[in-house]
Amino acid sequence: MRATALRAAAALCAAALLTSCAADAETAGTYPSRSIDYVVPFAAGGSTDIAARAGAEALSDELGVPVNVVNQPGADQIIGVSTVRTSEADGYTLLADGAGSSSIQGLLPYVPYDWTDRTFVAKFAEGPHVYVVGGDSPYQDFDAVVEAARSDPENFTVGWIGGSSTSDFATLQFLAGNDIDAAKVKRVPFRSSGEVMRAVAAGDIDFGAGGASSAFSLAGTGKLRPIALTGTQPIDKLEGVPSTAELGHPELDMQYWVGVSAPPGLPRDLTGKLADAVATIAEDDAVVDQLSAVGLAPAVLTGEELRTDINREKDRFATLSEQIGVAG
Amino acid sequence: MGLSELLSGFAEVFQPQVLLLAFLGCLAGTMVGVLPGLGPVSAIAILFPLTAYLGPSAAIVVLAAIYYGAMYGGSTSAILLKIPGEVSSLPAALEGYPMTQRGRAGQALAIAAGASFFAGIVGTLGVWLIGPHLAGFALEFGPPEMLGLVLFALTAIAGLSSGSVVRGIGMAVAGMLLASVGLDLTSSQQRMTFGSLELMQGLDIVPVMIGLFGVAEVLRTLERGTPSAQAAKVGGFLPTRDEFRRSAGAAGRGTVTGFLLGLIPGMLPSTTTFLSYASERRRAERKGGSRFGTGAVEGIGGPEAANNATAMSGFVPLFSLGIPTGPTMALIMAALMVYGVVPGPTMFTSDADITAAVIASFFVANVILLVLNLPLAGLWAKIANVPYGVLGPIIIVCCGVGAYTARNSVFDIVVCLVAGVAGWAMSKRGLPVAPFVMGFILGPMLELSLRQTVAISPASLVESPIFLCFAAAALVSVGLAYRLHRRGVEKVDANA
Lengths: 328, 496
Fold this sequence. Notes:
The complex is a heterodimer of chains A (328) and B (496).
Chain A: H1 2-24, E1 36-40, H2 47-63, E2 67-71, H3 78-85, E3 93-97, E4 119-134, H4 142-151, E5 157-160, H5 166-177, E6 186-189, H6 193-202, E7 208-211, H7 216-221, E8 224-229, E9 255-262, H8 268-282, H9 285-293, E10 297-302, H10 303-322
Helix pairs in contact in A: 2-8, 2-9
Chain B: H1 3-13, H2 16-34, H3 40-51, H4 56-81, H5 90-101, H6 105-129, H7 131-134, H8 137-140, H9 143-155, H10 157-160, H11 165-179, E1 182-183, E2 190-191, H12 197-200, H13 205-224, H14 228-231, H15 241-261, H16 269-287, H17 298-313, H18 315-321, H19 327-338, H20 352-381, H21 388-407, H22 410-429, H23 434-456, H24 460-463, H25 465-495
């Protein structure tokens, strides 16, 4: 009698355990059933934040649950990434990923985790960098700046945002691609590419690089002269600015991107469903408009292809940073 | 932009739904700001996502309304409970709370609201009329000029330290040291992080300040046992003729300096507020009979006006050059960009309709806030009469929320509590907290501008007239402080 009771109790416990497991491991059929946190590792207001908010709004329509943007800035994006990495791999905590929170972290000695240990779901947007000089600068085009910097690198000042952003790598690529001695060039510290643009426009420094949108306002005043956009695509709001490909420098192609990543071990079917949703919204008209407002365009890459791409990006960054003798 | 454009801007704002949005923004901002420990930073963080569903001009009208509402509200909790929600309402706490204790809370609230209103209106006029001409100022102010300004601002610390100047300087240095925790900007070296991930992101001023004032004030009240706030009487809110005269002068000075300094990128209202407070205090001490520290109306009117004027003039570099002067301006810029409006010269030409609507809405928001706050002053003042057994826990919870929302970080709640205990210990030892906060804010600015200047060319210091002016002003300021100090010592000797 007692044995039966015990067995029944054990069976009940097992059943309870099973159901709770079933509740935990959601399938692509039922996911998502509640709101999703989309962690942006930057303060609100930057171009990654704007792109992420546009993506989040469209994703929430696509998936039928609220997608909430949570800004967690600080410590070279380590804080935001770390929050997502240590969350449950259930698809309800996602990261607004980008080079600054992935491949560049592969170069930073103080990142306390393995940067590749995450689920790369999809990238949905990408955009070029812009190279700028002052409106009153003696060098008014690409070749003139290169010439001046090459002949006297010690007196060539460039903006620098701590070495943990693609803008800095765009600068390094500019120096390396044009045989300018990057170790001799003076790197002047700033907190954001917006501040770099102000300093270039004011004539405080000679040269700067930033995401295309960082130059939109000042370029309109004539105080800032954009000399090239990295890659091949023109940007509407920077009309008439040549691409590096047009200038005969296709190797200067540094892009920055925004995507969706998840904690390591996100179940395959959930990853697939999310990647499909992200790919769909990237072509959404409203999203395309909002992306182009900050100089970005849809660019979808998912799964292993994305992982390979980011790994390749990391290797390029590593080669570039060797020039200045420090990682990052 | 002429008068006709501005009038069509008013026509835009006087549509019922825009007026309603502006009113709701003011109300929501004020409500969040009134909560002890919550200020504009929290209000914007909490309410920003809601503005994403509005059109460009409506979104900016609401954002601005929330921002100003939270500033008005933040001063309210500073005056009534000595708990500022942000650094710029600190002077209101230092001078307004003693007034509350003397039963003149209503007058303190009215002076704060009046000064904010005055600066808001004058600032809006400034943005409209002289804004486009002053835009270039943001480009004149490079690293050497910033360095000069920061050096000058640091001398104001002497004016903030009641009693020993050495203690004030010591606290400012402590503030600078704590502000340097985290990753170094250029080399990404870790500073005082002890290998901790949380410390790597550095300490944010918001949780630190909420702890030093909010949590510490609760601890002090618990220790006293008989909460003084309970004894406070609300009183009327009409200031005496003398109070009006003294605060109006201070508000005028605060408005002018706040507006001009606010044109500089990186110049936050917190800094200009402190400068105004320090200069009003020194002015009063030079004249003799200073009531600073015990409820001086100049210490409320001047800084409150400087605060709002700076917040207004931040729109000048934003609208004309697309240069945001601080985090709130960066958010407003983002809201513009999302709608395809690129801040820049076109704001006053092809996008003049949006700009006119925004400027008109500033006028309207300021009027709404005054109308909202003067009658409500009495209601808010009753907060001080809530039994402390109820109020204390609410304050602690609000402080936690305020600390958390700055960066969505649980660690910041811990920082806030630790800062609370530290603030309590500081007041036991008679260490002034205001210079600490000042050091915390100015330290990183000093470091950055110094390193930029050195990297560009140290020689640019002597070539910059603005830097030389500031350097001279800093020396004069130190000299005056020394003389004032000597005179004080002699007076004490004579009395003894």
